[in-house]
Amino acid sequence: MASFSMTDTTTASPPTPQSTPRLETAAQPERLRRVAIEPLTRVEGHGKVTLLLDEHDRVHQVRLHIVEFRGFERFIQGRPYWEVPVMVQRLCGICPVSHHLAAAKAMDVIVGARALTPTAEKVRRLMHYGQILQSHALHFFHLASPDLLFGFDSEVARRNIVAVAQAHPDIARKGVLLRKFGQEVIRITAGKRIHGTGAIPGGVNKNVSPEERDALLKDIYHVIAWSREAVALARQLYEQDPALYGEFGSIRAHQLCLVRADGAMDLYHGGLRARTADGETLFDHLDYDRYWEHILEEVKPWSYMKFPFLRALGPEQGWYRVGPLARVTLCDTIPTPLADHARREFLAYAGGSAARATMGTHWARMIEVLHAAEVIKALLHDPDIHGEDLVTQGERSERGVGIIEAPRGTLIHHYRVNEDDVVTRCNLIVSTTHNNQAMNESIRQVARRYLDGRRLTEGLLNHIEVAIRAFDPCLSCATHALGQMPLAVELVDASGQTLDRITRDAPSVC
Amino acid sequence: MNSFLLDGAEIPFEPGQTVIQAALAAGHYIPHLCYHPEFVPHGSCKLCTVRADGRPTAACTLPAQAGLKVESETEELNDLRRTLVQMLFAEGNHFCPSCEKSGNCVLQALGYDLGVMTAGFRHFFLDRPVDASHPDILLDFNRCVLCKLCVRASEEVDGKGVFSLAGRGIQRRLIVSAESGRLADTDIAVTDKAVEVCPVGVILRKRVGFRVPIGRRRFDARPISAQALEDAPRKPEHKHE
Ligand code: SF4
Ligand code: FES
User: Contact A87/B98, CB-based, under 8 Å?
Assistant: First the structure.
């Protein structure tokens, strides 16, 4: 059963100090108390935050550890390539469709489908924007909004969608309906809400029938209206306390995302754009087929998850951020009018401070929800989605890379397939991995500002989760039970004596 | 015409028919896996077990006899069938959501139709690499239920003898009749009956994968109990010799 345990013990074998950013590695860890915030549930891997404190509760080291599901890369070896897009959906409970599509894009290259038929391309885009909508709605309304509506150290019992529904029934209802609509788009394009099969190497296995389109069209105007309200809500929450939101967990980060050939936002396909925190362009419209010449992965002794970095800047300086904030600020424009208007307002807000803030990510996320709704509307009016020409192929390749902008950021799938049609190598870089260092930096900032020198309380520890949740809902340890996970926070001294204990029970919602 | 009783219903039969053939022809379903209307019964999976005059017997090999009292739709027998299905799942590696045979698979369809809701047994999690050596056909040994249909089809219809079952008991497994053991070194062709007949996802046409969308697969429209009646020969042309 999911639970948190927070243990406070002396550290095991201390890692070697190195010239890493402040709070990554404490100077004398053996003399410090260790606090772990540890979820025992696994969604996409699982996460744990450890803090090292001295006797005055000063914070010396903060680390986010994520156990990544790398076993998958081994598991997929020896399997036929056409199975991969369906198989990879086991990787993530929240955005299986992103993995489905990234793998399908890689397999398009394998089967030589350099350009898909218009029907295949548009049905896949529909599926993807449906996924963006449902995942972003879940992330914002179900998982993050309680922190934002009730405060970062609000009562534990209120940190869930049920409490949101009680206090703000209209907000909760629309969040639920937005998500449902996204799931419906997925069901129609992929065949099922989860574990669908819609995208196959070289195309799709079904089109959208006029009846299916009509069913979606019926609601699309409401969906756009609700999405506009969601943007307004995200802004309003930010405006409750612009000083707090502007600084909370904020970091100066380089950024990476896909952009369309004309520089516009495109979450399904494009070239890679990377800019430094100062806005200097490192590369642009980069053909992602050779991503590995520009993005390397570093291993650190204390974490199972790799730390990717931009080769041009090196492992120390080259870490970067991906996801809604990167995308909304890196694109030249959003190619749908309402979302682009919202983007310009966001960029202009308080001298651009929201566009640099970690907590601005939620606002950017809702701008993407609006964009997704507008794209879905346009696609539903496009007769190509009813076409019969579904699959194409060409000259076979041994190696295929597929990159997509998943809800939480850039997602890379990379395969080698031999002449017998089986996968011989696989490398995945998921959004969470790209953001690994950025999240670590962000929670260190929070720890310095809010936890340092203070007696730890559950509310203070939630501040760490609030920062993580800006990037990623899974690690916030809240996904499985929609923010209502049973939580036991224990402070145990070096001899194993429990000093303090805070618990919350999970309501039976999941 | 001669007849016997199946769960109280009178089932007419012609001489030479088995209980399952007569039952299916008369529109009465008896769950089965290794029985196939086009092949001589093999009687190995025991899923078709009924009580004939009180004695448990495989309905696919039991010749119909006038006046026989057969019970099939009983809680006891369906429990037994569920257990057999659970054992088959435990023995192989069947992960339905990412199996391309999903929706067309007899084992999965039986599981749904019989209401198998739990794993029941600890799964073996054997590591069985696929044989992808043939240019057009893939063999995924993880999913074999040892029904011997491919063996029978390759011998009787294709005249090739590409497959056989080797080993006994828990060691029993499908092998390819070639010195190398590789499918590429046999004369199997993608059009062979042996390729078509596999009820689960072992013998697969390459590069087809998930081309048929969810909703248009064989068992999406109707459960296997209804599909089997649809497929059953109405005339007793496939008699048990
Ligand atoms: S390969 Fe298929 S047809 Fe052959 S024995 Fe195994 S399950 Fe039966
Ligand atoms: S169907 Fe009768 S024993 Fe298998």
Answer: yes
List CB contacts of A479: < 8 A, sequence separation 6 or more: A41, A43, A93, A94, A143, A473
Mutate to test the pocket of ligand 1, among B38, B91, B147 (most ligand atoms within 8 A of CB): B147
Indicate whether A161 pLDDT > 90: no
Task: Report the separation in Å between the CA atom of A91 and the middle of ligand 1, taken as the mean of its atom positions.
Answer: 30
Domains of chain B: 2-73 (3.10.20.740), 98-221 (3.30.70.20)
Q: pLDDT digits over B151-163, tens only?
A: 999 999 999 999 9
- Please tell me the distance from the alpha carbon of residue B39 to that of residue B150, in angstroms, as a whole number: 10
Residue B208 sits at the chain A interface (C-beta within 8 Å): yes
Fold assignment, A72-434? Cytochrome-c3 Hydrogenase; chain B (1.10.645)
Choose the closest CB to B211 out of A83, A87, A205: A205
Residues of A with CB under 8 A from a CB of B: 78-80, 82-83, 85-87, 89-90, 111, 190-192, 195-198, 200-201, 205-206, 391, 420-422
C-alpha A189/C-alpha B33 separation (Å) is: 33
Contact between chains at B207 and A421 (C-beta distance less than 8 A): yes
Average pLDDT over residues A477-490: 33
The answer, yes or no, to whether ipTM is higher than 0.95 is: no
Q: Report how far residue A196's alpha carbon sits from residue B210's, in angstroms, rounded to the nearest whole number.
A: 10
The tens digit of pLDDT for each residue in A336-362 reads 999 999 999 999 999 999 999 999 999
